[in-house]
Structures are given as structure tokens and as C-alpha cells.
User: Fold these one by one.
Assistant:
Number 1:
Amino acid sequence: MATVNHNLSDYDIQSVPNAEGMKFGIVVSQWNDNITGALLNGAVQTLKVNGVSADDIKVMTVPGSFELTYAAQQMAKTGVDAVIAIGCVIRGDTPHFDYICEGTTNGLAYLNASQDVPIIYGLITTNNMQQALDRCGGRLGNKGDEAAVTAIKMADFRRKVKQ
């Protein structure tokens, strides 16, 4: 769904499972930290609002978005119920944007399909800084909120499948 048609922070709280006792890992890129910091804050607050204890949220940083794949893979081994990967890549003047976005997306998708723990895609890829600002708490909401809700739902799905 295009973000222009949906606020990233809007969700029906009744549709979110009780997350008490669930554990979440968050790996966050330090690159574009003004954006990723806001995305992280959104994710953490949304987890807490939905019953997750601060002690059950483990946050670790990596230098850039490309490193999220390795970090998510390692975080998945720590006993968490889901991992949220948060990053921000803004298009520049070179094809670097394309390589980082494709490599990170493919890496996270591979992990999501191959790990026993859900890996949640919280990477925003934008053409300019304003689009990033719009998606980290601006007029289009916060992708961190959306990623946290997805993490809770997928952790709940995983628990139900394993029953």
C-alpha cells in the first residue's frame, strides 16, 4: 500500500495481540540518525503501548543500512520473538542508493524466510530528506510504529504456529 494513502502510525489497537512477555530485538542504522532515531523511538513507544516491558526490548546499532542484515541475523539468535531492522537510505547522485537498497532488502527478505524468528523490514528508502522526515513522525506517520505493530503480530503468529 502506498504511504501516501495510509498513515504509518494509524492502526486498530484492538487488532494487535497482547504483547506482554514478548521479547523484541531492534537493530538500527546510525546513518541518517536523525531519521533512524525517530523511527526507533516510534517502534519502542509502540511496543511499550502494546504491553512490552522496556526490559524485553534490546536495541543495538550498526553503522549503516547494509549492515542490518548481519545484525538482524545475529539478533535473531538471542531468544527474541521478533527482530525489527530500522534504517534509512536517501537517494543521492550515484547508484550507491540502488545497491544498498537492493542488497539490504534482499538480505532481510532472505533472513525472514530462512530464520525461525520474524525479521521485520523497517527500512525507509526515499528520494529526498523531506520524504524521510514525512515517514519518521511527520505528516505520513512513523514507519517505526508500523514496524513494531508488524513485529507484535508476527511474534504472535509464530507462537500460534509453534503450539
Number 2:
Amino acid sequence: MLREDIEFKTSFTVSQKPYRAKLDQNESPYDLPEDIKTYLLERVKEAAWNRYPQPLTYSKVKERFAGEIGVEPERVALTFGGDQTILSAFLIAGGPGRRAVVFEPTYPMFRHYAIATGTEAEVVVLGEDYTPSPEHFVGKGFHLITFVSPNNPTGNLIDTAIVRAALETGALVFVDEAYYPFARVSVWEELRDYPNLMVGRSLSKSMLAGMRMGYVLSSPEVINAVEHMLFAPYNLTHTHLVLFNEFGVIKPHLNRGADTVIYERERIRRVLAELSLNPFPSYANFVMFKTERHRELYEFLTDSGVRIRDVSGLPGLSNHLRVTVGTPEENDLFLEAVRSWVR
């Protein structure tokens, strides 16, 4: 009955232990203010819940959202979370008989969607530096080349020159920029004239994880293909469309939250460096670090009520941990627990 080419295992899980600081899922530590949420809920109530979202509504919402992010509406597709941007790339450029390259360690959904779509994926393990080279894809005949910038969990950016070299191969080049709000630099700014560039972004990391919102930036041809495969707007709910439509109301709060996260991210890095825990530079809302006693530290933190992510099971990261940047108070709890463990 089930596909024989897939090993069906337990789905993605996180710790369910009690916590004082939840720093394990790269979420924003801040929620929208109550008055803003009340305003948005009133807008959702105005929709007819017994009716499907309509294409005309989608077009108008997309035009308004595109204006807020400064791009043309024909270059944007709205998605159900950032994961759907990744799936879209495999739907339009992958499939049986087609080849993609995935660089790891990275977000597991790339390998997952390759399997789900029957795409032949060549996995290149780069280790903790996550630095692809043209030799990994030039002349290899890939239909889809994928990058993550900033990468999860390493936190580093991809050199624009590497992305340009990938674009010159003629493959669809997908760049996951889910953490763009914390990096504030994008390959889109320099390479948007390439019709085969596809950038996926998420609003989950900056404050809307529970709402599952993402979007694609690309050429009109690619956007049309994405919306066709997703049957837009039926991939979205009225709630999605309201939130996209009111993004101008939401955006200032996301930006302020991201400002605080960026400041706290650098504070965490400084302290971890002082404690000789080898933090890596990060342009995202997390910091990866490493210690030979990583499992001992992870369990100590968990027992202290501080949940972080053990990423040592990812390729090339045998003794690495990742901490999401929380509120200053949560970060204090994390850092004090780490100091205690070091002592």
C-alpha cells in the first residue's frame, strides 16, 4: 500500500520537557501586541468562512503585500509557510528523471521534498563551514540547485558570486532566505534579473511562526509556475490573506523584534566565545557553537529548564549545539546556566 522507496519514521519532533527558556525552534521570542491581534482578528471575522478565497482577492492582496516589500506583484507568490516555497522549487524543477543538488548540513526539508517528489538529489556534505563551490554544480547537469542563506544551523551567508555561478548553469537556483529579517542582505538585490533565480522567504522566524506564512520572489515565468502548482489561492486561508493584506500594520513590530534579536545574538556570541565554546558567526536568529562535551551540556541545560537544539546528528556537526536567540531575560537564563556548567 505504501511507497517502498521511503522509510516512514516518526515526524519532526522537539523536546516536550518543562522549560523556563524555550530556545530550540528558531521562533521569535516576541508576539504581536494584543491590540494589533484584535484588529487583525476583526478583519478575519469580516471574511465569509463558508466561501473559498477567490483569485481576485488573492491578486489584490498580493499587490498590496508586494508594495510593502518593494517588488512588482508579478514577481511574488504567497505561500503557506516557508516550507511551501521549498516544495514549490521541487514541484516546478524536480520530479522523476530530474536532478537536484542539496548542500548539508541544512534544513532537513530539502532532502525530504526531494524524496517526496521523486527527484534525484545529490547531497554534498560541507560540514560546519557550509561553503559551496562551483565545482559542486558546474557541468553536472542539475535541473535544480539549492542554497540556504543564512544557513540553518551554521548561520552563515552564501557568497553572491557562488549563486551567480549557479545561475549561469541555466538550472533553477533556489535560495532559501527564511532568516532574511535578521541578515538584511539578500541575493535578490543583485541577481534579480536572472529569470532562473527563485528566492524563498518566511515570516515565521520574525514573529508569525504560528500563522505559517511565506513568499517566493522570482521572474514572472517562475511565479506563474509556482502559483499553478500550488493552485493559488487555494493553498491559503482567509486568515493568511488578511495577514498578508495587513502586513503594513504588522511590519513595524516584526522589525523592532528583529532589532532586539540581532543585538542579543551578538551578546550571546561574545559570552560563548569568552567561555571557549566556539560560537560561529551568525546572520540568523540563532547561534551555533561546539564543545566535545556537547551532550553533557545539552542535558545540563535541559535539566535547568533551558531548551536548545542538539544538532550533532546533522552531517558534519558531530559535537555542535544551536541556541535560538530569546528575550534578554531568556538569554540571561541560558548564559548563566552555561557559566554554571563551565564552572
